Amino acid sequence: MEQEQDSTSREQHQLEAQMPQASKEPINRNTQLSFLCNHICSFSNQEYSIIDSAERSKSKVKLIGLIIFYSIVMVVEIIGGMKANSLAVLTDAAHLLTDIIGSSISLSAVLVAGRASTPQQSFGYGRVEVLGALLSVQLIWLICGYLIYEAVDRILHKVAKVNGKLMFFIALFGFLVNLFMIYWLGHDHSHHGHSHESHHTCNGEDHDHELDELYISNVEDTHLVSPSPRKIKILNINIQGAYLHVMTDIIQTVGVMISGLIIWFKPEWLVVDLLCTLVFTIVALSTTLPMLKKVLYILMERTPDEIDIALLESGLKSIEGIHDVHDLHVWAITSGKFVLACHIVVGSGVNQNEILVKVKDYCERTFRIHHVTIQIDQNVC
């Protein structure tokens, strides 16, 4: 028993020796992040920045390629759709426009993410993505509204014939390009998660358990801490979203191909083209609703859906030395970029620098909140 107490006492002295002291030096980011090991670990901002930079570079290439492919197909479908007199093909082109706008917004977000903040733009330029998304939704609704009007007008007035053969081959071209885009995204989509799973250690030993004990005073409360970032596959949400969009496009082009075949062999069945237009327009409109919802949530500074605020608060309160948490606010500058501000109440004699380090690292490694502002209130009782 005495040996265990001596060992525990030595570990506490070592930890205190490595911690920055409030009375001797100001809070320093580099000092805070190095108190557990002498080299950079996988949850530190330096490695996160390196990974983030590599992700941005890879995403940029993929997104630029997608925009080029989408643009080629869209131009072909606009010209071909007008020649074939097919609203279904033009609707597919309108849907491709939504994909181009979405990919352009994602690309601008990737490019803007690398820009440093300025005194006038203290949070950076992340909201450019949000504003672009809002404008794109309005444009898509305008185009879809026109296509619905045109489809209804054609149903009522029975317009001229549709060239089913040309309609089919235009859709076939779009289908083949979409298959190539799946190949373009597929390798990265299926293997991307393997690249950052390696375990980094301090002095040859994994210190996840040590970290959990550092953040949570009660061993039974360690379930509040999620796995560290190195155990989470780092997948790029923009590329995943683009992959799903391409899959949706393939389904839509198959529908246009089937409609083209029907009209090719049954020219009098023009209603098939118009029904496809109405269905695909509704599909295109429905794809904007999640985007609009997210845009409104960000602009209203709502707590992001990715953050469990109750779990976050209980986790902060479980950190040793913290008596209470109040005025807790979490919002998003843009999708995936979270900001936190709160007041924490600590007891007298508590090392405030140490508390700041624990809170900041807990927020980063558990909820990926990398911009944390804390005001410490002293508990006089």
From TrEMBL:
Subcellular location: Membrane
Gene Ontology cellular component list: membrane
Region (Disordered): 1-24
Mode of membrane association: Multi-pass membrane protein
Keywords assigned by UniProt, alphabetized: Ion transport, Membrane, Transmembrane, Transmembrane helix, Transport, Zinc, Zinc transport
Main location: membrane
Transmembrane segments: 63-82, 94-116, 128-148, 168-186, 242-265, 271-292
SUPFAM superfamilies with a match to the protein in the record: Cation efflux protein cytoplasmic domain-like, Cation efflux protein transmembrane domain-like
GO BP annotations, alphabetical order: zinc ion transport
Pfam families xrefs: Cation_efflux (PF01545), ZT_dimer (PF16916)
Record carries keyword Transport: yes
Cation efflux protein cytoplasmic domain boundaries: 304-378
Keyword Transmembrane helix among record annotations: yes
Family matches, as Gene3D superfamilies: Cation efflux protein transmembrane domain
Residues annotated as domain Cation efflux protein transmembrane: 67-300
Family, similarity comment: Belongs to the cation diffusion facilitator (CDF) transporter (TC 2.A.4) family. SLC30A subfamily.
NCBIfam families: CDF
Protein name: Uncharacterized protein
Lineage of the organism: Eukaryota, Viridiplantae, Streptophyta, Embryophyta, Tracheophyta
